[in-house]
Design brief:
Chain A is α/β, with parallel strands linked by helices. Chain A has 15 helices and 17 strands. In chain A, about 40% of the residues lie in helices and about 20% in strands. In chain A, the strands form 4 sheets. Chain A has a 7-stranded parallel beta sheet with strand order 10-9-11-8-7-12-13, with helices on both faces. A 4-stranded antiparallel beta sheet of chain A has the order 16-2-1-17, with no helix packed on it. In chain A, a hairpin with a 2-residue loop joins strand 1 (about 95-100) and strand 2 (about 105-110). The two termini of chain A are about 50 Å apart. The mean pLDDT of chain A is about 90. At the A-B interface, helix 1, helix 10, helix 13, helix 14 and strand 13 of A face helix 1, helix 10, helix 13, helix 14 and strand 13 of B.
């Protein structure tokens, strides 16, 4: 397949898709949900091929879990489609309505972005979510999924594409790309593809960003911080840190760095609790020398219990090492970095300089400190007293997400329907010309009608 | 000056500027307006240096007109500042307020983008407009103006910067770059500069886009079309075409291409009127052979009157030449391209494929045709029966503009205050963790509070 030619056709079909009614787009989604359920046995057969191939090639269990498309996953994607149908139509919203002068009327109306290229990991449910988000928002997707799910992706794409054609969408409104080398062709489709959304490893996303002139939405790193303030409630701190680190370690919104206020009382009460909690959960601590010195001291006073039960001893020893803060990074595993900060402002500044502007959290009981942190930290998500793992389109109530954006341009954070629309200005006159305004013969009165 | 170091300092100052109150930002604008008026004689002296230099170096009259900063320009920029003060604060707007679950509250709040690099043409009034838009929206601008206005830019920058410091803005919140080679340094400040807005020639904007990983907002080409529909009112068509072509030929929103419906009645009534109007206004026509054949025929029937008055003759001959439609381009002068189209859909398709997605217009008395055109044409501005020259921030009532965007991402069309903001998600819990939702122990209820 010559990607460029297919995408060129899609570009000329895109305005037709943009003009389809809300009813037609919703009907397409209903058909998709029906067809997926009707053809589930065929889908499971194709999925088994991918699973068998993965087993033969010794693919890790954690990846196989994501490849699997079973009754449970089907139920989830169908529920997701039904949620999408229930959401307000993002297209055709009047966001500005202004009379510039008599009979010269300006409207700003939301409309689809057009052609969107999405390159995503080996997860068949992602294909369904991304396609249906695009269909609901009147966009034309070019889809490239992970190669480990080629068979499942192919049948899912065919079912969805046939359903949208049946619903009255024009031919060529969706495109599947299967070969990895076709990604490079796609990157060169400047002027035809309006937006690229890459998902996957840090290195992969950076490769996309560095090799195209098409706008890219997404995130490379996910280095999320939790700042434990001097006014932190210690139970809350421990509970949130453990969830943010362990609930799903490979996620971009898992915590990677702890910043701890250098308050003496906090150190006395919080550090031993943290050491025990990390040890019990098998989390390795990579801390600055100040932090690890406290761990050394802790184990001097509380030897590890190797034989009988002893209340003065502890049961598990923390795995820890001393590093410099320049070595802090994204682990995506059971490792966490830690250092002290003198105050909240230093924490915010450290996050702004070393974070990835994804999601960062303060643990505090002080409203003033929370407000200041949430104001100063320049991230898509700024949290108080809750896990960074909440940064997710479904959890925010967006139905699903095409990705999470750490960019400040266009869309930020989890990107659902709203991030998939743009707008156009429509101006209607009765032979109005600028010359009459430039000469002072007429003047604007700018009366808002909305 | 090492640009990167200065920009790094600005980056750490940006969250403080973002946190300044609306009152403080408005007070800064009031001070700027006052200081500009108080120090106008000093400004005019510096401006005379630039004008003298231009005169000595034989700079074209049209450019000198833009370099000039006189009482009239001062009055305009001060009026612009007052309009900016009167506009609603774009910062801190609550655009989403949702209870995800009991005590787990999500807010989405508008906030400044941060550090914005703006490279603009030699127009001192542009420096004032751009700076004040950034100040009103809580952003930190890095400003590089055209070298022909170095002296005027320097004094204007100093007056504005001193005024914002006096108003309580932090040091380093604004930066002026004077050397052309420093632009390349600025392009490398990925991660420090959040957005670049280049204004100027097509080639220059393209150079910026091709040489940075920082998001770029703006437009390279401005190839605007007027489609004369079969239901066009001919007087309206002639009036709008002349304004769109002649009112300011060097503007990006001037019309460059005419698409004319191949309806026989329209050809009979409209083409002779067009030929006469273009000839009278000294506009050269570059048309396809079908178009120029009609001009040949016209002059066969209406010879040019070289001597006495004669009602059968015409007074001026149109300058025209036959070209292929692949030669249509942006002229920015008194030249216009023209071709026929079979119908409205062909016109829309031609515009989508050959235009620059800036501003395109239909001349028609048919509501249905206008609606279809405005739906199908994929441009930032889609107009009916009015001049493309209206595409402008001031005329839309945005106070001013930092530029016009032909991108579909983030902001489209004239970019005023709204295009200079982004948002952040703020989530507040009471120790909420994802684990409890993943296990089914708790569930989201997503109740909108707005």
């Amino acid at each position: 397949m010559v990607v460029r030619e297919e995408v060129r056709k899609m570009k000329s079909v895109a305005p037709l898709v943009a003009g389809l009614s809300n009813e037609k787009r919703c009907n397409a989604l209903i058909l998709i949900a029906d067809r997926l359920e009707e053809k589930k046995e065929e889908i499971f057969i194709e999925n088994k091929k991918d699973l068998d191939f993965a087993a033969q090639n010794g693919v890790a269990e954690s990846i196989v879990k994501r490849l699997k498309f079973d009754e449970g996953k089907l139920r989830d994607v169908v529920a997701g489609i039904k949620q999408l149908i229930s959401l307000e139509d993002p297209i055709g919203k009047l966001t500005l309505h202004r009379e510039l002068d008599t009979d010269l009327i300006l409207k700003r109306i939301t409309c689809p972005i057009g052609v969107i290229g999405i390159i995503f990991e080996a997860r068949p449910d992602a294909l369904v979510q991304i396609s249906t988000l695009c269909i609901r928002s009147g966009n034309c997707p070019v889809l490239k999924g992970g190669k480990e799910t080629t068979n499942t992706n192919r049948i899912l794409f065919n079912i969805i594409y046939e359903a949208v054609l049946e619903a009255g969408f024009p031919e060529g409104c969706m495109l599947a790309v299967e070969q990895h080398n076709e990604i490079d062709e796609l990157l060169k489709c400047e002027g035809l593809v309006d937006l690229l959304i890459p998902r996957g490893s840090n290195a992969f996303v950076r490769y996309i960003m560095d090799n195209t002139h098409i706008p890219v939405m997404g995130h490379a790193d996910g280095i999320c911080h939790i700042y434990v303030d001097e006014w932190a409630d210690i139970d809350t701190a421990i509970k949130v840190i453990l969830d943010a680190k362990t609930q799903y370690t490979a996620a971009c919104n898992a915590v990677e760095t702890l910043l701890i206020n250098r308050n003496q009382l906090l150190i006395k009460n919080f550090i031993p609790r943290l050491i025990e909690a990390l040890a019990e959960n098998g989390i390795k601590l990579r801390g600055t020398s100040e932090i690890t010195a406290l761990a050394d001291e802790f184990y001097k006073n509380h030897p590890v219990n190797t034989e009988a039960d002893n209340s003065e001893n502890v049961n598990q020893k923390l795995d820890y090492e001393t590093i410099d803060e320049s070595e802090f990074k994204e682990y995506l595993s059971l490792i966490v970095s830690a250092r002290f900060v003198d105050n909240l402002d230093e924490a915010a500044d450290f996050i702004n300089q070393h974070g990835s502007h994804h999601t960062d959290c303060i643990i505090t009981s002080s409203d003033d400190n929370a407000d200041r942190f949430m104001q100063l930290v320049d991230s898509a998500g700024v949290y108080r007293n809750c896990s960074t793992r909440f940064a997710d389109g479904f959890r925010y109530g967006f139905g699903a997400e095409v990705g999470i954006s750490t960019s400040k341009i266009h869309a930020r954070g989890p990107v659902g329907l709203e991030g998939l629309v743009t707008y156009k200005y429509m101006l209607t006159g009765r032979g109005h010309i600028v010359g009459e305004y430039a000469s002072g013969q007429k003047s604007f009165h700018h009366k808002d009608l909305l």
